[in-house]
Write a structure and sequence with these properties.
heterodimer; A: 372 residues; Rossmann fold; OB fold (Dihydrolipoamide Acetyltransferase, E2P); 8 helices; B: 395 residues; 2 domains; binds adenosine-5'-triphosphate; binds magnesium ion
Chain lengths: 372, 395
């Protein structure tokens, strides 16, 4: 929990149940710091949009409380919350030109024409759309519409902006360009942004912190790097980046190192939850942290593996191996001279360190390991 | 010839063009022709008309004219064609028919020394200019008479265009009534239909289907039945009056007269035409994402502002299309006013029908029809200027 003074937005035990039976958000606690870009990342249907809609005021929490600047917003209608919202399909008004779209929030606030024009011009400069004032939205490209939607959510100078998969409809190149753009704008204005996406790369690229959502709950909330390097939940390890997940059983634990039995032999691993010294676990090993043919004795974990498949992917090679009882064990080798000619059916030795092998609580994500 | 794709595609439209030609252009052309072409009198009294041609409308008429006219009348009476001629003269000036028929009867078999005196003896009107002027006018083979008539004008004996006598000016007033009532019906339909269309477009599918069905249901029953049922509803001892009395809103003696007048016509037509407004409007509203209202609210608009600036402008193509449809249908409406309109609730179409079926003055019917057509065209053009036909969305 943050100090209240530091938190811009607080969800306190927020639950949302649709139609009396469909629980979409469960007891959510979340603090968003002032001026940060926090991303809600999660698979489809995990309740991300619902959270945004509750914050914007379009849905009511079934129970729990949402605070903005420490004040409950339960009785505040959407128009009085002063939150900029960028909707997934932009929701630009088709009968208004770009500048009239932008002027709309200013007009309903009763600003004078001169002031409106000034602010609209500034907002267009921020999103780099000068010269498009009089175009109707349907004569803009996808990326330009996106910029207009962002500008419209910013033009009335809210301190909080919500973005629901704003780049969902754009192609890959444009997405990457817009990610930088959104980050740049957010940082230059210092606004708090709550951002929703189900694209984990996008989340990593733009966020100060990422909250990984699953079935209406936050699995883990951390900086992108921490999330990648130190997942605390099997779901996070699986969802963020590529990971090899092996089911196993903890035999013994000593400090934060444990011995785990898998169907291919015993593995030494980093114990994520120090309170768990036995029982079912899931091992997570990143494909790029696995060494091929290491000097014998370099790693505590060294195994023989059979090469099932070799794929050349330009900047790296991807191997599929059978090792430790898994026939879907992935290894990535950077494409540097002398990686050797590996072929399907070869037998290689692989190794990884204890630190790169995390023993995570089993959440029923994989078939449980049963000693054979 | 049909080698290029465009020519082939064009050929596919030939049946449609032929269909339109037969069902639309041809009747319209015939109608126009009838409204200006009036050959009966011209064919029947060629010599009389030739003699009348030089007449200035004031000078005394020569004996030769009387003799020729009497001769032609008797000839026509013998071939039983005089009635039709007399009827047409009568349309130019009331009372002429009986004068002509009586005179022809009296002159039957006579051989007087002075035809002039004999005719004046048969009817003194022959001594005055009016009837001769009427014959001359009725004898114009190509005439704008029907149009003048349709606009409550006439030509006096000197050929000047003047207003009809006060008591005979009916068409312009009726046209005005028709346009005003149609506009009122359109507005009422809009007021009733807009919220309903909004509801249909924005409720859960189950409800919207049901409501849509309710809107379409009347289409499956006969227009006649629906019009007649309004008589039962609106008459003096009808359901609506009973209800008003029961609620104490009107007294037993003060029961409202709501049928066989303009109120009856407007109520009935509103009900008959409402679907034509709701359907295009619904189609347009369906295309407006509900998200827009949320977006407006998130941008700080209150419900009134959101409706006024975001929703309403986007429904305009549907509003325009629906009200145009209703208005144009209403102007030409015939059956409802005929059934429930009584004397005061008639539309111009009812008079057109009257002239088609009873007075058999097809020329005038055609002219009235054409005036109506011009009105509709003018409205369409004005609409196009105002809104732009290409922006209308009928569904
Ligand atoms: N108004 C509603 N009534 C009933 N159920 C709803 C409603 N809105 C959302 N849901 C359900 O709530 C669940 C979560 O929806 P939500 O839109 O929050 O997911 P999401 O994480 O945004 O997913 P996505 O990535 O696909 O947008 C879904 O199963 C959805 O069907
Ligand atoms: Mg969503």
């Amino acid at each position: 929990m943050l100090e209240t003074a530091d938190a811009h937005i607080q969800f306190r035990g927020v639950t949302k149940i649709y139609d009396g039976r469909k629980t979409v958000v469960q007891g959510l606690d979340l603090d968003v710091r002032r001026g940060e870009l926090l991303t809600l990342l999660g698979p489809s249907g995990s309740g991300k949009t619902t959270c945004l809609m509750m914050l914007a005021g379009f849905e009511m929490p079934t129970s729990g409380e949402i605070l903005i600047d420490g004040q409950s917003v339960r009785d505040l209608p959407p128009r009085k919350r002063g939150i900029g919202v960028v909707f997934q399909d932009y929701a630009l008004f088709p009968h208004m030109s770009v500048s009239r779209n932008l002027a709309f929030p200013l007009r309903v606030r009763g600003l004078q024409a001169a002031q409106r024009a000034d602010r609209v011009r500034r907002a267009l400069r921020i999103v780099r759309l000068e010269g498009f004032e009089n175009r109707p939205p349907n004569e803009l490209s996808g990326g330009q519409r996106q910029r207009v939607a962002i500008a419209r959510a910013l033009v009335f100078e809210p301190s909080l902006v919500l973005m629901d998969e704003p780049l969902g409809a754009l192609d890959r190149r444009l997405r990457e360009e817009m990610q930088f753009e959104i980050r740049r704008i957010q940082q230059s204005l210092g606004v708090t942004v709550l951002y929703v996406t189900h694209d984990q790369q996008e989340a990593m690229a733009i966020s100060d912190r990422v909250a990984v959502f699953n079935r209406g709950k936050i699995e883990q909330i951390a900086e992108p790097e921490t999330l990648y390097e130190e997942p605390e939940r099997a779901f996070v390890a699986k969802f963020i980046g590529d990971n090899n997940l092996l089911p196993g059983r903890i035999l013994s634990a000593e400090g934060d190192i444990c011995q785990v039995e898998t169907s291919g032999g015993a593995v030494s691993a980093f114990l994520v939850d120090p309170n768990q010294s036995s029982g079912a676990t899931v091992l997570a090993i990143r494909p790029e942290r696995i060494a091929l043919a290491p000097e014998p004795g370099t790693y505590r974990n060294e195994f023989d593996a059979d090469v099932e498949e070799v794929a050349f992917l330009g900047d790296h090679l991807r191997l599929r191996l059978t090792v430790c009882g898994s026939s879907d064990f992935c290894v990535k080798i950077p494409n540097i001279v002398g990686h050797g000619a590996l072929l399907r059916g070869d037998r290689v030795r692989v190794g990884w360190s204890v630190a790169d092998c995390r023993a995570l609580p089993d959440e029923g994500l994989l078939d449980r390991y049963t000693p054979g | 010839m049909l080698s290029s794709p465009r020519a082939r595609a064009g050929a596919l439209t030939l049946p449609l063009i032929a269909f339109l030609g037969v069902t639309f252009v041809a009747p319209l052309g015939t109608m126009l022709w009838r409204s200006v072409h009036e050959p009966v009198v011209a064919d029947a009294l060629p010599q009389t008309l030739a003699l009348l041609e030089a007449w200035d409308g004031q000078a005394a008429l020569p004996e030769a004219l009387y003799q020729t006219a009497a001769g032609e009348f008797r000839q026509l009476q013998a071939s039983r064609a005089l009635g039709g001629v007399a009827t047409r003269v009568n349309r130019v000036q009331g009372g002429s028919r009986s004068i002509i028929m009586r005179t022809a009867r009296e002159l039957h078999g006579a051989a007087p020394a002075s035809w002039r005196e004999a005719m004046i003896a048969a009817h003194p009107a022959w001594g005055e200019a009016a009837i001769w002027g009427a014959i001359r006018q009725a004898g114009q083979r190509y005439t704008i008479r029907h149009y003048l008539n349709a606009l409550d004008l006439e030509q006096d004996i000197q050929g000047r265009i003047v207003a009809q006598p006060q008591d005979q000016r009916i068409y312009l007033k009726l046209l005005g009534n028709t346009l005003a009532a149609s506009a009122a019906i359109t507005l009422i339909c809009l007021a009733l239909g807009y919220p309903l269309a909004y509801l249909i477009a924005n409720t859960k599918p189950r409800w919207s289907n049901l409501l849509l069905l309710a809107v379409l249901l009347p289409f499956w029953s006969s227009l006649l039945v629906r019009s007649m049922s309004w008589i039962i509803m609106l008459q003096k001892k009808g359901v609506v009056n009973d209800l008003l009395v029961a609620l104490g809103l009107v007294t037993e003696d003060g029961r409202l007269i709501m049928v066989y007048n303009m109120i009856g016509t407007m109520v009935t037509m509103t009900q008959l035409l409402l679907p034509f407004l709701i359907l295009p409007l619904y189609a347009v509203m369906r295309g407006i994402p509900p998200l827009h209202l949320r977006a407006a609210a998130s941008l700080g608009a209150n419900p009134r502002q959101a409706f006024l600036h975001v929703y309403w402008p986007q429904t305009l193509p549907g509003v325009a299309a629906g009200s145009l449809l209703v208005f144009i249908l209403a102007i030409g409406y015939y059956i409802a006013p005929a059934l429930v309109g009584g004397r005061t609730g008639q539309f111009i179409s009812n008079l057109i029908a009257y002239h088609m079926q009873y007075s058999l003055n097809w020329g005038l019917a055609a002219a009235l029809n054409f005036v109506l057509l011009v009105c509709v065209t003018v409205i369409l053009v004005a609409y196009n200027r105002l809104i732009g036909i290409e922006r209308l969305r009928f569904g």
